[in-house]
Amino acid sequence: MKRDRFLDILANFHLNDDSAAVPKGQPGYDPLHKLRPFINHLNHLFQTTYIPEQHIIIDEALCPWRGKLSFKVYMKDKPVKWGIKLYHLCESKSGYVWQFEILCGMPGLSNRPYDVVQRLLGPLKSLGYCLYTDTYYTSLALAEDLASSNTGFTGTVLSNIIGLPKEFMNTKLDTGGVDFRRCKNTVVLRWKDKTDVAVLSTIHRPQMVAVNTRTSVKKRPTAIVDYHKNMGGVDLNDHMISYNAFYRKTTKWWKKLAFHMLTLTMVQAHCLYLKVRKMIGKPGMCLEDFMISVGEDLVTVPKSDGDQPTGAAVPQDPQQLRIQGSHLSHFLVPLKGRKNCCVCYARLKAEGTDSKYRRKRTKRTKWECQQCKKALCVHPCMKAYHTMQDYTRPLQNLV
Which residues contact 33 (CB under 8 A, 6 or more apart)? Predict the structure, then answer.
């Protein structure tokens, strides 16, 4: 694909009807109106394609963006600090995103951590899943609510959280020391290694387990061991996206977010691909090779038995190159030299240009029609003609 053709497609790229958007400040206003059909489609696709394993996590992800945007956020713990914040519900083992939500300041939509967790869990609630979160989402009310709905919960907690005894949370512990309290279905556990770590859990008992380190064997609480084991799904997903991220600069925030979600979709497909390859006992491709393979299949495989390959792929066999439109039986064959394309020449002549200008601006080609013996471009990318019917219109008067 040529550069100008790609830029023309990118300039006319849209995902929703802008005329149907509700103005800001009126009921029904959606900050993500430009992307709403695409977001809903991806969420539906992710949920219907795969059912996650028992251990799931909720964490934040970031789409890089430093331009002007009302819901742009700053996250100091991320490699890229500025951008658009996304909430991901992932499978902890593979990083598969089962559902996501974008922080956009939607009117009437609560962004409290408790409400975000309830929305993301959705139909997974009360099915026996075990949820892991960090300190941003963890609260005693959330742990008790999920426990009553047959959903396990484990998450790190701050010392000043509401509902926990201050004397217990502020007590100093020796290195390796453990202390815990129980509140209904929730165990509050504190353990000190180099720093104090506090965990809320409804699925763990205050027990210790031996863990092999680089130098020795240490005992750690089972809740903390499982937390570190299962809390890397979102980071794994972000890590995979960063390998082949879409870094093209654009002044449109929604295009940047759309291509970020498109990259996320490719990572999702690669995750399922690796699962299938592992089931049949065969090795899989790396993400880069997988993306190249998918791209080649999309531009070369016909949509149906009678369709020709679409996209930018050009068949290598000269007998398969032919004019589209009303000249489907005219195949192109190579010339010994190069000639002026009759379509380009006829277009310039119809515009009333002189012969010197036509000879200078007409495209030179090494192909000609096997039947008509007229020199033709394989892909005459002329700005005045945007469809294959327009490409062949001047040719109808010549052959």
Answer: 16, 18, 20, 21, 22
- Backbone φ, ψ for residue 147 (5° rounding): -65, -35
The segment with the largest mean pLDDT, out of 85-99, 224-238, 323-337, 344-358, is: 85-99
d(CA 239, CA 172): 37
Phi, psi angle pair for 330, to nearest 5°: -95, 105
> 309: helix, coil or strand?
coil
Instruction: Evaluate if residue 326 carries a pLDDT over 50.
Output: no
The alpha helices in the chain, defined as continuous H runs, are 3-11, 36-49, 113-121, 140-148, 166-170, 222-230, 233-243, 253-279, 287-300, 342-350, 355-361, 388-392
For residues 288 and 132, give the distance between their C-alpha atoms in angstroms, rounded to a whole number. 30
- What CA–CA distance (Å, rounded) separates 206 from 187? 8
- Both tokens assigned to 131: 């949820």
Phi, psi of 300 (to 5 degrees): -120, -25
What Å distances lie between residue 75 and 64, 78, 231, CA to CA? 11, 6, 18
- What's the rounded Cα separation, in Å, for the pair 132 and 153? 6
Residue 327 pLDDT more than 50? Answer: no
- Is residue 84 within 8 Å of residue 71, measured between CB atoms? yes
Containing 292, the helix (H) or strand (E) segment is: helix 287-300
How far is Cα 312 from Cα 217, in angstroms, rounded to an integer? 58
Whole-number pLDDT of residue 123: 87
What share of the chain has pLDDT > 70, as a percent?
86
3-state secondary structure of 151: coil
Kindly compute the dihedral angle of the four CA atoms of residues 242, 247, 250, 255, in this order, to the nearest 10 degrees: -40
Q: Find, among 377, 354, 351, the residue nearest to 364 by Cα.
A: 377
| Partner residues linked to 217 by β-bridges | 212
CB under 8 Å to 99, separation ≥6 — which residues? 43, 46, 47, 88, 89, 120, 122
Sign of the alpha-carbon torsion through 80, 81, 84, 88:
positive
Mean pLDDT of 211-226: 86
| C-alpha–C-alpha distance, residues 6 and 19, integer Å | 25
